[in-house]
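Thread title: Can someone regenerate the structure for this chain?

I was given the following input by a collaborator and told the matching structure tokens would be attached. They weren't. Posting the sequence so someone can regenerate them.
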Amino acid sequence: MISTFMGLETAKRGLNTSQSALYTMSQNVANANTPGYTRQRVNFAQTTAFPTPGMNSPMVAGQLGTGVQAESVQRVRESFLDIQFRNQANKVGYYGTLSDSLVKMEGIMNEPTETGLQATLDKFWKSLQDLSTNTENSGARSVVAASGQMVADTLNYYYNSLTSVQKDIGNQITVKEQEINSILENISEVNRQISEVEPNGYLPNDLYDKRDSLVDSLSQLVNIKVTNVIPSDYGNAKSIAEGLYNIELITRDGTSYTPPVNLVSVNKSGILGITKVEVSYDQNTMPKMVNGVKFGDRLVKDTSFSGQLAGLIESYGYLKTDGVTPSIEGRYPDMLKKLNNMTEAFMNEFNAIHRRGFALNEETDTAADGTIIKKAGNEKDFFEIIAGKHPAEGIKVRDEILDDPTLIAAGGKSGASADNENAQKLAALKKLNFSEYSYYQIDGNGNGNVLPDGLTGSLDSFYSGIIGAMGVDSQGAAKNHTNSTILANSVDYNRQSVSAVSLDEEMTDMIRFQQAYNASSRVINMMDEMLDKIVNGLGTGGR
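Best answer:
Regenerated them for you:
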């Protein structure tokens, strides 16, 4: 037998469900401009029909529906787009950090400009040419000494500025390390809060949004893989519950480390905890280079996990141990090494030529065959390096020459004013290949000085080469950053088109659910009139 009040209950459920939908729509509208908010919807489901099959079921024409219920309030989100966005955000973080570091390097090197090293070297070579045409001119000699000091000052400035930025990048590494650990702690805490809500049959959508926002931030710092885990003993959790996040560190190409590195560890038993991140430094290098990243007690030497942290490490410098002998790699260490090697070779060869020459009116000796030779002890260097400093850091013109430019060895055979042979040799160093430097010639017995690594061509061509390579690297990083930003924005646009709140759509839903609410109200009014007739109208015929 169907209850007299069944229609009222059915209409009441319609009212309640439409009201829940209107409340959810109100929540969406209120958070239309909230960063990280995902729009929500009410999932409607039919209630169980009457009667249910059984031996005692009433015999009626057929099952009658009993209305609708709000089964769940669910986020509208596409997990695949989240994965795509985080992959691109990781590249944006990596290339953006790398590009910023290279732009700072370009600003220091300042090429090509009138104040750059190339222009300063050109002035130095020109001063030597001028000296070769007028060796007795005190002004020309003073210009050579001053120009040489300008070259030294420029190299000093480059070295000190690069090391200063390198130190700043090292400080940024520490900041990013702390930021990663803070985000991991927050994700683990949100995981815990979610684990307390989901087993009760609810969907903590606000906590889901908070967790996803934290994961998006983490993906810019390191490359991660997110896995949803539903614990075995999880109470009355809904089938659409998202569960807990296990976050694994992966390499730039998306492969897992062996064994896997879990930053936030979760399994079927529940939350296991987080793995603290700590950048490790080699204590035998100066400045101390990164030799890996500690995840808990485990040291991972492969820092190819992309993101901002990897970009900072690549810029700052790290210890590479692929071969037998560890080598220092990185954008700033590489540039500093090239400047030091170039400065060392240039200074040694310039000094070697200078020592063989004769200063103006220098006191000389005569050999047995009548040849004029240098007096013992008169061999003087033009440049020197301040003790305890690297070549580019500490190169300077000797104070003795700055004080007395007549000591510049412009003569090749004597100290006579017309002798300019050595000045021409010094000027010719501009285009002399490093392989032809007399200071680095090895004799038949294998004796001699070894040319620093990586030096090819002449001083001018080598320096132009490293500036060109720096420009190409900077341009490449900026281009990759732009491309990855465009792709990330495109994916985020697609993601927002699914998850963001559309006020037009919400207004449409408001009218739709309002009309549904009104219709259910009209059904209740109709049922009230029917019941009024039954209660107050039936059985009055005999009165």
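The chain has twelve helices and 15 strands.
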